[in-house]
Structure formats: structure tokens, C-alpha cells
Design goal:
alpha+beta; MetI-like fold; four-stranded antiparallel beta sheet; two-stranded antiparallel sheet; 11 helices; 6% strand
Length: 388
């Protein structure tokens, strides 16, 4: 550790510090050049071996027609589109299930983690059983079990479980009503999410510095839901309707998406629950006693005193859980959900360029996890910042 300040007029000390910095930067630069040289050598060696075996290499194949269909899409795509478009569709599916999983896992994890602090033995026991079950059973087994429950135990579409005019649940998945003007409803919902989140954040900063971000998320979600319902009430609803053996109208979530979504959510929420519980138990017992002595109820103690402090401890490992969820979404190939890895496997089977496809998949997952790491670092810096 360097001194806080240099002795006044000590030129020798300053020269020594400059020399130390120069040596440090020179060593780091030398290591970086060495790593680059090793990478270039490996790339040339791989390229030479591929050429010697007359194996096609390079990323030019991304401009070729893919020639295969994708069963579930968020963006426009046909078999005549390029491999690049196919990978974009797969990445969109990966983002879709990852974001949905992060939201549900966070809500479940926080709720279960706080409920594990309850003194009621039934509540505590059920929450403990939840955590131990979903945390200790391998994720791939959970995915297969949930997929089996959906495709084997649910009724056929002709006898679908229904909430009239709202939703139908069957082996075909979940069909639900959406506004007739779906794009307009989405635009209004996104706008309400931003406005509601900002309003909730500004309002919460006045009375709960640490929890402002959480309040913003809740307020934005509520505002988006209200906007979605308002557009549907104004323009009408496209409702799922059973026509013979088929269901038409509304929007649908396939069995593959539902199984992957809930498998990831349940598996990750168990670990998040333990993070929240550990953070809460790390709060000194004296603060619990002081809050109770001030006349606060148990709910007020947890929400106003314990949870904000637990959040400071839980956020760094929480980032790792979010990144693990994104990486675990690659298990979608087990149940047939067309995510990025599934599209990559199909591409390899068609063009044989396994190395390039694997590099693309690695780059996408690396980029997504780096984004999560940066966002969570900013959140952590915000939460741990000392109040003014």
C-alpha cells in the first residue's frame, strides 16, 4: 500500500514511484502481447489443419440461406433467411426465457427467503423443503419432470383447463387473451414501464434510499400492466377459442417454453432464497431488538430495517445466480426449445462448421453475462453507497 502523501520535496521518492509504475505497466503489456501471440498462433495452426483436411472454415456461411424452420419465434424468420438471421432468432428466444426466468426467480427467491425467517413451524418447514428440493435436484431432471407433467398429465386441447375468455391450459401449452391491437398495447406498456418506474424511484428516494430501485421495478410493472389492460379494454381482446381440436386466437406459450421457464425459475429461486435469508441473518440482532423496542411490527422490521441491509450483502452473489440462469438456459436443447444452442446444433448438422458455431455461441453467452455483471455492479454501487 502506497503512502497517503509523498514527503515534501522528496524527488527521489517520486522517481522511485514512477519507476515502479513503469515496471508494472511494462510487465502487464508484455503479458498481454504474449497472450495475443499465443492466440494468433493457435488460430493459424487451426486454420492450417482445417485447410489440410479440406474442411471449410470462416464465417462466410452466415450469409447463406439457413434452410430450416424454427418452431417458436419472436422475430420474423423463414427458412429462406440467412444463418445470421437464424442465430438472431435463437438469441431472441434465449433472451426471452432468461429475462422471464430472472423476474420470476427473483420474486420467488425474495419471498421464500423472507418467509424462512418466520417463526411458524409450518411456514418455515414448507419454505425449507422448497429450497432443499429445488436446490439439490439437478436442473436437467427438473426440466424433464416439468415437461412430462405438462405433456402427459394435462388434458388435451379438447378438454383444456380454462378461465373463460382469459386463458386455456392443455398439453398444447398456455393460450391467453391479448389486446386486439397487440403492438399498440406493447408500446403503451413499455412507455408506462419507464414512466412508472421513474416515478416510483423518485418517490421512494424520499423515504427509503436503499429500496428505491425495488420500488421502481414494482411501480413500473404495475403501470405496464394497467396500460396493457387499458388498451385491451379500449380496442377489444383476442381471446383463445377452441375450434374442434385446435385453439385459435390470443397468444400462446408452448410446453417447451413453459417447462424451461419454470424449471430455471424454481431452480434459481431456491439459491436466491438462501442468499436473502443469509443476508437477513447477518443483520445484528441488536437492530431487530431496537426496531421492536420502537414499536415496529414484524413486517415493518423486515421491510424497513432488515431487508435493505440484507440487500447489500445479497446483490454481489445475486449477480452470479443471474449469470448462471442465463448459462443454464442452454439446457433448452433437452426439451426441444429452439434457443441459441439448439439453432447452433442444427447449423452444425447442416454445414459442419462446428468451430465457428461454437465460437458464436460462446461470444453471445459471454456478452450477455458481461452485461449482467456490469448492470449488477452498478446496482451494487448504488445500494452500498453511504447515505448523504
Amino acid at each position: 500500500m502506497e503512502p497517503l502523501a509523498a514527503p515534501v520535496g522528496d524527488a527521489a521518492w517520486r522517481a522511485r514511484r514512477r519507476a515502479e509504475r513503469l515496471r508494472a505497466w511494462s510487465l502487464q503489456g508484455l503479458v498481454a502481447l504474449l497472450l495475443v501471440a499465443v492466440g494468433v498462433h493457435i488460430a493459424r495452426n487451426v486454420g492450417a489443419n482445417l485447410d489440410a483436411r479440406q474442411i471449410k472454415s470462416g464465417f462466410d456461411f452466415l450469409r447463406d440461406p439457413a434452410g430450416f424452420n424454427i418452431g417458436e419465434l419472436l422475430i420474423d424468420y423463414t427458412a429462406r433467411d440467412t444463418y445470421l438471421r437464424a442465430f438472431a432468432a435463437g438469441m431472441a428466444n434465449t433472451l426471452r426465457v432468461s429475462i422471464a426466468g430472472i423476474v420470476v426467480a427473483s420474486l420467488l427467491g425474495v419471498a421464500i427467503g423472507l418467509l424462512r425467517l418466520a417463526r411458524h413451524p409450518l411456514v418455515y418447514g414448507l419454505c425449507a423443503a422448497y429450497v432443499e428440493l429445488f436446490r439439490n435436484v439437478p436442473l436437467v431432471i427438473q426440466l424433464l419432470a416439468i415437461y412430462l407433467l405438462i405433456t402427459e398429465l394435462l388434458p388435451d386441447s379438447s378438454g383444456a383447463l380454462s378461465i373463460p375468455g382469459v386463458a386455456l391450459l392443455s398439453k398444447e401449452g398456455l393460450q391467453f387473451a391479448v389486446p386486439e391491437e397487440g403492438r399498440l398495447a406493447l408500446e403503451w406498456a413499455l412507455g408506462a414501464l419507464v414512466v412508472g418506474g421513474a416515478a416510483g424511484f423518485l418517490a421512494a428516494r424520499r423515504w427509503l434510499e436503499v429500496g428505491a430501485g425495488l420500488v421502481a421495478v414494482v411501480a413500473g410493472g404495475v403501470a405496464a400492466a394497467i396500460a396493457w389492460i387499458a388498451v385491451g379494454a379500449e380496442t377489444g381482446w383476442s381471446e383463445p377459442v377452441l375450434e374442434g381440436f385446435l385453439i385459435s386466437g390470443g397468444a400462446a406459450l408452448t410446453p417447451e417454453f413453459l417447462a424451461l421457464w419454470w424449471g430455471l425459475s424454481l431452480f434459481t429461486s431456491a439459491s436466491i432464497a438462501e442468499l436473502v435469508r443469509a443476508g437477513a441473518l447477518a443483520v445484528p440482532a441488536g437492530q431487530w431488538d431496537a426496531a421492536h423496542a420502537l414499536g415496529m411490527t414484524g413486517r415493518q422490521v423486515v421491510s424497513g430495517v432488515v431487508f435493505p441491509q440484507a440487500l447489500r450483502l445479497a446483490i454481489p452473489p445475486l449477480a452470479s445466480q443471474y449469470m448462471n440462469l442465463i448459462k443454464n438456459s442452454s439446457l433448452a436443447v433437452v426439451i426441444g426449445y429452439p434457443d441459441l444452442v439448439s439453432i447452433g446444433n442444427t447449423s452444425i448438422n447442416q454445414n459442419g462448421q462446428a468451430l465457428e458455431v461454437i465460437v458464436i455461441i460462446m461470444a453471445v453467452y459471454l456478452s450477455l453475462n458481461l452485461i449482467v455483471a456490469v448492470v449488477m455492479s452498478l446496482v451494487n454501487a448504488r445500494v452500498t453507497r453511504a447515505p448523504r
